[in-house]
C-alpha cells in the first residue's frame, strides 16, 4: 500500500519537472522501473553480477592459500633475521675464544691503553688548535675595543677643545 503511494508521488514529481531542468532524467527511469512488487528487472540494466567467473567465491582453497602464504611470509622473516644475527653472534663468540686462545689479558690491556692514548693525543691536538683560534679571536676583539676607545677619547678631546675655544670667544665678545 505504501509503495504505491510512494511510486505515485515520485512519478508526479518527475513528470511535473520540466525536461530542461532535468539533466539526468534517465537516472530516474531506472528507479521508477524497479520500485514496487510488480516491477520487472530491466534486461538492459541487470541487477545481478554478470561477470561470470571473474570474481570467484572464497572457498577452502582460497583460505588454504592465505594460510600458506602467511606461514611462508613468517618463515621468510625468521630466516632473514636469523641470517643477519649469525655473523654478529659468530663475531662475539670468536672474540671471546680469541681472548682465551692466542691473546693474553695483558696484551689486550696494552692494545686498549694504546688506542686510548692515541685518542687522547688527537683530542689534545684538536683542543690546542681550537684554543689558539679562540685566543686570536679574543685578541682581535680586544684590539677593536681598544681602537674604539681611542677614537672615543680623541673625539672627546676634540669636542672639549672646541667647547673651550667657543667659551673663550664668547667671553672675549662679552668683555668688549
Structure description:
This protein is mainly α and 176 residues long. It has a domain at 2-48. It has helices spanning 2-16, 25-34, 60-101, 105-175. The chain is flat and about 130 Å long. It starts with a helix and ends with a helix. The mean pLDDT is 77.
Main beta sheet: strand number and arrangement? none
Average pLDDT rating:
77
**N→C terminal distance:** 129 Å
Q: Poorly predicted ranges (pLDDT <50, ≥5 residues)?
A: none
Number of strands: 0
Derived structural class: mainly alpha
SS field, number of helical segments: 4
Shape, per Cα inertia axes: flat
Task: State the helicity in percent bands.
Answer: over 70%
Strand content: under 5%
Radius of gyration: 49 Å
What are the secondary-structure elements, in order, as H or E?
HHHH
SSE blueprint and pairings:
Layout lengths: L1 H15 L8 H10 L25 H42 L3 H71 L1
Provide a quick synopsis of the model.
This protein is mainly alpha-helical.
Key descriptive features of the protein:
78% helix, 176 residues
Amino acid at each position: 500500500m505504501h509503495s504505491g503511494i510512494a511510486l505515485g508521488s515520485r512519478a508526479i514529481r518527475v513528470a511535473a519537472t520540466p525536461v530542461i531542468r532535468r539533466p539526468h532524467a534517465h537516472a530516474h527511469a531506472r528507479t521508477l522501473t524497479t520500485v514496487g512488487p510488480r516491477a520487472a528487472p530491466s534486461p538492459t540494466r541487470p541487477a545481478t553480477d554478470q561477470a561470470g567467473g571473474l570474481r570467484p567465491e572464497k572457498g577452502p582453497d582460497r583460505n588454504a592459500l592465505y594460510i600458506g602464504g602467511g606461514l611462508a611470509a613468517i618463515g621468510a622473516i625468521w630466516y632473514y633475521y636469523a641470517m643477519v644475527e649469525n655473523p654478529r653472534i659468530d663475531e662475539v663468540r670468536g672474540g671471546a675464544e680469541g681472548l682465551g686462545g692466542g691473546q693474553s689479558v695483558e696484551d689486550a690491556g696494552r692494545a686498549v691503553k694504546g688506542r686510548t692514548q692515541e685518542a687522547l693525543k688527537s683530542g689534545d691536538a684538536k683542543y690546542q688548535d681550537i684554543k689558539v683560534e679562540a685566543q686570536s679571536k679574543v685578541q682581535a676583539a680586544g684590539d677593536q675595543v681598544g681602537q674604539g676607545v681611542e677614537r672615543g677619547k680623541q673625539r672627546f678631546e676634540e669636542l672639549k677643545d672646541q667647547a673651550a675655544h667657543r667659551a673663550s670667544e664668547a667671553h672675549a665678545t662679552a668683555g668688549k
